[in-house]
Amino acid sequence: MATEVDAFAHWKATGQADADPDSEYWRPWTDLIRGLVTRGVVVRRARIVSEPVSDYIRYEHAGTAANVAAGEQVRWLPRRRASDIALPGNDFWLIDNRLVRWNHFTGDGASAPGEISDDPAAARLCATAFEAVWKRAVPHDEYEIR
Is the omega angle on the peptide bond into residue 88 within 30 degrees of 0, that is, cis? Predict the structure, then answer.
């Protein structure tokens, strides 16, 4: 199975990203999302990005069609438009407005062990920040890479 490092290197070399939701690379994730969506769960992803974007964000954007095809709703917000939004210090997934899955990264951008929090204050902070970002963000199919 290809890793993200391999997929990113392939994209950098060819300009082609794997956006097939049924590919070996995507299938574990898209099966999960499809299962959730089938049960009526709404899965939303907001990405706050600096512009001009990095190569990695270009790569993410090119592959996001797989997320959308699986049922995720994805929006993009240029960082300049987020200046007055109080944001948590780390990337996160908010589950049922009560659990936060904090994502941590190393200094070079690699994933580091995450953590789960059931702290109500953290969940409120994340929910408030996410809704503010979501309102301003641009749907994936309308966001133009800059």
Answer: no
Please count the structural domains in the chain. Answer: 1
Give the model confidence (pLDDT) of 77-102 as tens digits.
Answer: 999 999 999 999 999 999 999 999 99
Cβ-Cβ contacts under 8 Å for 110 (sequence gap 6 or more)? none
Closest CA to 94 of 44, 139, 49, 30: 44
pTM exceeding the 0.90 threshold for the entire prediction: yes
Domain containing 125: what range? 4-142
3-state secondary structure of 101: strand
Residue 136, phi then psi, degrees to nearest 5: -90, -20
Phi, psi of 138 (to 5 degrees): -100, 130
